[in-house]
Amino acid sequence: MAPKSLPELPPIAGVRLATAQAGIKYRDRTDLLLAEFAPGTTVAGVFTRSKAPSAPVDWCRAALPSGRARALLVNSGNANAFTGRRGVEAVGASVKAVTVALSCSPAEVWLASTGVIGEPLDARKIEAALPALAKALGADGWEPAARAIMTTDTFPKAATRSVALGGKKVTINGIAKGSGMIAPDMATMLAFVFTDAKIAAPLLQQLLQQSNAKSFNAITVDGDTSTSDTALLFATGQGAEVTQKDAGAFAAALDGLMIELARLVAKDGEGAQKFITIEVSGAESDEAARRIGLSIANSPLVKTAIAGEDANWGRIVMAVGKSGEKVERDTLRVLIGGVLIAENGERVEGYDEAPVAAHMRTRDIAIAVDIGLGKGRATVWTCDLTHGYIDINADYRS
Amino acid sequence: MAPKSLPELPPIAGVRLATAQAGIKYRDRTDLLLAEFAPGTTVAGVFTRSKAPSAPVDWCRAALPSGRARALLVNSGNANAFTGRRGVEAVGASVKAVTVALSCSPAEVWLASTGVIGEPLDARKIEAALPALAKALGADGWEPAARAIMTTDTFPKAATRSVALGGKKVTINGIAKGSGMIAPDMATMLAFVFTDAKIAAPLLQQLLQQSNAKSFNAITVDGDTSTSDTALLFATGQGAEVTQKDAGAFAAALDGLMIELARLVAKDGEGAQKFITIEVSGAESDEAARRIGLSIANSPLVKTAIAGEDANWGRIVMAVGKSGEKVERDTLRVLIGGVLIAENGERVEGYDEAPVAAHMRTRDIAIAVDIGLGKGRATVWTCDLTHGYIDINADYRS
């Protein structure tokens, strides 16, 4: 389900990129990304809710109140998670190497790691790679950047938007990785978004959280939450300013970009053969709708039915029923591919499965559920559960 | 992982059983079980927490306050769930047929249905079968009873215990079905337990709830909660009396019997090749320990790693971290097959994977997690996630 081509990402004033093969785990693949930001760049971040977060997540959380960034360093192949004191030391050594190469302070260096959990990360490989990496920095190289952060991903993920703000154009670029919302052994979902707009850190944080709720928090592959999920948004301040009262156009573009990246992650779900969009309406609140959507999206029985092209709507009813949210059996409506299947607590009179069965044979499956109780709505994206998922995850580490 | 043979279940004074082929869905298989109870029989029940429960679950919940039972009627092949008004009518017709055949009142008739969701249940087949079924009632027939309630189960599940109460022997028999804690399309886990002890309904309910928390609420196959989960405990009152102050021995025997049945259900999990026992200790409370255990047991990434015989302890850390319960990364200890792998926030010094890899190749996998924060403990049982699960559930209905 890879897109035909990667979009062309323009340069962003104040962002320079470079990648390298540091040999952290993979052979003959880039596994290190360095981004350098202009002085004055602000940053916002959202992180995994796991109680066992990785060392780089701890580092970024501690740095967040400063809201300032001069560099981002990302490695793939090793998550530096559950690595104890040695993990903290690896973070320290990596940060130090960046500050030396780019002449910045430690609190302005942002880190993310993705890969195996529990294996010590050898920071000497990162230290050794950094001088050449710093020399190679340039304004282009978005596709190599998207590739360097991949783990089990089958295609690189990138998106771009531009917004006119009072006659000036502002650009937003984003890259992401993740194959399985969460494939914790190849730890997880990472997303990095960059803009030349000038945005104060508190507003930037608010914009990121709002867009994240509609995008990365609305996708799932297997319901497993990684130790390392990280989304960072950098604003270099080289272009037009976005303020609280005119943030609408920028927020809309950011929503669009982050939803595009999130959908790409769900499409690259491990073993995925079908992309599933679940629209929930009529719930008590938007948050309740999102939870009901995720209950459907995470149900192994719904996901295997879709893999088998079986219009098994009874399993959707089951998943709604187990969501823990307020639901009334007799006000629930279930549609697949736009066809109403069930309402008033039973299958509709004269239900014809033929058009639904035809829809199930397509690649893009649309499920809609109306709870019939309130005005809450949400859209959730996921993929099916196939033999490919078992193959990848039963064999991966060994 | 079927047991070598079904245990021999003795008669229970006050219980008579019969089975029939009503042709509800299956051909050449029994699909109807009738149990008749002596006057004075008390009953306790626990049911699915689904917000979309089946019509028989609604019926039993409404009957529960009476605490009285004269009959139990169970059909397999159709869950009578999400069947609306017609489902309620099918319940009414089935109950009426039982009251006519056994001369009892409707409030004393207990029902359970398991099978496809959303297909109307044709009660005429049940009405037609009942007169012959009532005539065939006898004190034996526990194995046929265990078989008549099966759906995708690969073996019948039964257990028996006896307890000496003040010089008198009391017997407890139980049968269960479920292949997958929850395989909602073949809807679910059903368990029926019978004893000749005399136990007042409120105490019986308390005993059932206590044992259920340690048994059926501590197993999972896929985390999907069915529309129809039902466990009923009948006490015919023909033997010794159990009172609140001497309930300990009976409760211990009931625990043992229900845990045995629950473990059989997990062993028969769809596609299961390995049986997994997860011991959680050191949590803030027993309930927190159970939730952490279920988070591990329901993680597709833990389950596929075990299917692949991969000692992938990082995924266990991930599943503990996402449980939502209080956890400290640095006090957590993880053991597989009794071997300590991780503590103090990292892998133990000099960890040798060889004995753990050998344990992973066995059929009975033991995972232990100590949270290091309190005294809460729980044991949870599950099975691995294999290609067999995908085969069964991607193909089942079509």
Structure, explained:
Two copies of one chain form a homodimer. With about 400 residues, chain A is α+β, with helices and mostly antiparallel strands. The first copy, chain A, contains eleven helices and 15 strands. The interface between A and B is large, with 72 and 71 residues.
List the helices and strands and how they pair.
The structure is a homodimer of 398-residue chains.
Chain A: E1 15-20, E2 32-37, E3 42-47, H1 55-63, E4 71-78, H2 84-102, E5 109-116, H3 123-135, H4 142-148, E6 157-165, E7 168-177, E8 190-195, H5 201-214, E9 230-235, H6 248-267, E10 275-283, H7 286-297, H8 300-307, H9 313-321, E11 333-336, E12 339-343, E13 346-347, H10 354-360, E14 364-370, E15 376-383, H11 387-395
Parallel strand pairs in A: 4-5, 8-9, 10-14
Antiparallel strand pairs in A: 1-2, 2-4, 3-9, 6-7, 7-8, 10-15, 11-12, 11-14, 12-13
What general outline of chain A do the C-alpha atoms trace?
A: globular
Oligomeric grouping of the chains = homodimer
| Protein chains sharing the most extensive interface | A-B, 72 and 71 residues
Order of helices and strands of chain A: EEEHEHEHHEEEHEHEHHHEEEHEEH
For the residues shown, what is the average pLDDT of chain A? 91
Q: What's the total number of strands of chain A?
A: 15
Class computed from helices, strands and strand pairing of chain A: alpha+beta
Portion in beta strands of chain A: 25-35%
Task: Name the poorly predicted regions of chain A.
Answer: 181-187
Main sheet record of chain A:
6 strands, mixed
> What is the radius of gyration of chain A computed over CA atoms, rounded to a whole number of angstroms?
22 Å
Question: How far do the termini of chain A sit from each other?
Answer: 27 Å
**DSSP summary: helix tally of chain A:** 11
Strand order in the largest sheet of chain A: 13-12-11-14-10-15
